[in-house]
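Case study.
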Amino acid sequence: MSDDPDKVWPTGLSLKEAEEVHSYLIDGTRVFGAIALLAHILVAFSTPWLG
Amino acid sequence: MFDYRAFAIRRLTSLAPRYLPFADVATKDVPLLRLLRLSLFQVTVGMALVLLVGTLNRVMIVELAVPATLVAGMLALPLLFAPFRTLIGFKSDTYRSALGLRRVPYIWKGTMYQFGGFAIMPFALLVLSGYGEAVDAPRWVGLSSAALSFLLVGAGVHMVQTVGLALATDLVKQEDQPKVVGLMYVMLLFGMVISALIYGALLANYTPGRLIQVIQGTAVVTVALNLLALWKQEGRNRERARQMEVAPVIRFRDAWGALIARPGTMRLLCVIGLGTFGFGMADVLLEPYGGQALGFSVAETTRLTAVLAGGTLLGFAYASNALSAGGSPARLAGLGALIGIPGFLAIILSAIAGGPTLFVLGTLATGLGAGLFGHATLTATIRGAPAEQIGLSLGAWGAVQATCAGIGVALGGLVRDILVALPAFSGLAVHTPYNAVFAIEILFLALAILVAIPLFARRGQTLGAAAPHRDPAEVS
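After joint prediction, the assembly is written out as follows.
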C-alpha cells in the first residue's frame, strides 16, 4: 500500500480523494468570497466609506 | 483521599440519560451524545424559522417601516424552494464521492447558504428600508438583495433539514428510528423556543446596529452549531466510494416514479399535506384569538403558546414510546388528527359558551394532536422508505410538509383578514372570522383521517411482520 503511486504524501489520501477535499475548500472560498463582496457593496449603499 | 470529582462525574453520567426522554436511543454503534450533537442542526433550523417568521416579520414592519405586503412576499420566498427538497434528497442518495460521503457535503453546502443569507440580510434590509444614504439607492437594489438573502436562508434550511434527517436515519437501527424522530422534533422545538426568547431580549431596544449584530450573530452560531453537528458523523468509506463509482446513473424522474409506485406512498403524502395544512392554519391565529375574543392579556397569550408547545411535547413523547413499542404510525397519525378535531371544536365553543378554560384545554389538545401527527407521519415516511431512497423520501416529506404548513399559515391569516374586511360581516361578533378558519381546519383534519383510513390496516400488517424483536429488558 505504501508505494501506491496513486497516494498523495503525507495524508494517505488517494489523488481523487485529495481532489475532492480540495474542491470543497475551493467552493467554500468562492461562496464566502462572493457573499463578502455583496455584503460590502450593500454596506456601501447605506453608509458609503469611499467618498 | 476520596475523589469527589470522579465520583460526581460518574454519578452524573449514569444519572443524566434517564431524565432525557429519548435517552434509550443510544446503541453501541451510535452513542447518545453523538445523536444529540447531530440534532443540533435542528436547532439552527428552528433559529432560522423564528428569526424569519417571528422576529424579522415584526422588525421589518414596525421598525423598518417596510410595507406589510412586501414583507409577506419576502417571507414567502423560502417556501418556493420547498419542492426542491425532493431533488436535494435524491442527489444526496446518489452522490458520487471519492471519500464515500453522501450526506455531509450537502449539510455543509446548506450551512454555507444559511450563513450567506444571514450575512447579507441585515444590510439588505437596511438598504430596503432606505436607512442612511440608501434613500437615494435605486429601489431594485434593496428588493433584489433582500429577496436573495431570504432565498439563500430558505434554501440552506431546506437542504440542512432534509439531508440532516436522512443522515440521522442512516445512523441508527430501524427500531430506534421513532426515538430519533422524537429527538429531532424536540430539538427543533427547543431551538425555536430558546431563540425566540433570546431574540426578544436582544431586540428589546432596537437600533440598526443591534439588528446587524443579531442577524450576523445568528449566521456565526448557525455555522458553529452545524459544524459541531456534522463533525465526524459520516466516516470516510473507501468501500462505499468504490460502489458509488460503479453505481448506475439513475434519473430523478425514474427514482421518483419508483418511490411513488410503492403502495401507500402517495396516500401518505396526501395525508401529511392535509393534516399539516389543517394544524398549520391555527399557528398565527391562536394568540390574537385569545386576545380579541377572550380578552387575554399579552402575558396570558404568551403562556398560551407555552401550553401549545407543552401539548406538542407530550405528543412527541407518547408517539416515541408507542411507535418503538411496535405501534402503527398510520393509526397514530389518524389518532393525532382525531384529537385535533375536538380540540378545535373546543376552541370554537370557548368564544360562545365555554370561556378561557375550554380554550386552554382545546389549545392543549391541538398541540397534542399536532405532535402525534407530525411524529407519526415522519416515522411512517422513514419506515416506508427503501434504504437507498431515504433522502428522496425525506425530501418528499419535507416538500409536502413545509409547503402545506407555509400555505396554511398564510391562508389562515388571509381568510381572517378577508372576512374582517367584508362589509357583510361587519356586524358580527369579533370571534366569527377566527371560528371560520378553525372550522376549515376541522374539515381538513377530517379529510386527512378519511384519506388515511386505507393505510390503517395495511401499515399495521406490514409493521407486524417487520416489527423488530425487542428484549423485554430493553422495552422497560
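Observations recorded in class. Chain A touches chain B at residues 14, 16-17, 19-21, 24, 27-28, 31-32, 34-36, 38-39, 42-43, 45-48 (CB under 8 Å). The longest strand of chain A covers residues 7-8. We will return to this complex in the next lecture.
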